[in-house]
Amino acid sequence: MSGVREGAPASWEVFLRSRRGLAHQHVGSVRAAGPDAALATARDLYLRRGEVLSLWVVRSDAVHTASPDERDPYFAGARHKPYRYPEQYAPLTEEGREGEHDE
Question: Using CA atoms, how far apart are residues 75 and 72, in angstroms rounded to an integer?
Fold first, then answer.
């Protein structure tokens, strides 16, 4: 890891999920020597308010990212595939259905 002093605590990204059916949300970072210490520190810092169903910590250097500066292929639009965009479709309307149920 470049930029990190040898023997210094690693940086960990913290994710939590507050309710069933919701995705985990990134809530911040902590520094700790190992995963157990990272979980304990994250618990102390981020679980003070409300109930949380699960808590994840991931070493920051294990997170792979794409920068918005890297326009292709991650952030470029697919304008050559118009079927992916909602403006290509006409909205559904109730026209033509009025009076179908009239007696």
Answer: 6
Q: Contacts by 20-29 with C-beta closer than 8 Å and gap 24+?
A: 20/53, 24/54, 24/56, 29/60
Predicted pLDDT of residue 1: 44
Locate 70 and state its tokens: 């890297």
**Which token pair is 59?**
């070493």
DSSP run (H or E) holding 42: helix 35-46
Rounded Cα gap, residues 18 and 14, in angstroms? 13
pTM exceeds cut of 0.85: no
For the chain, the domains span 8-63
Domain 8-63 class, CATH top level = alpha beta
pLDDT at site 14:
96
Low-confidence stretches of the chain (pLDDT < 50) are 1-3, 103
The residues with which 32 forms a beta bridge, in sequence order, are 10
pLDDT of 55: 94
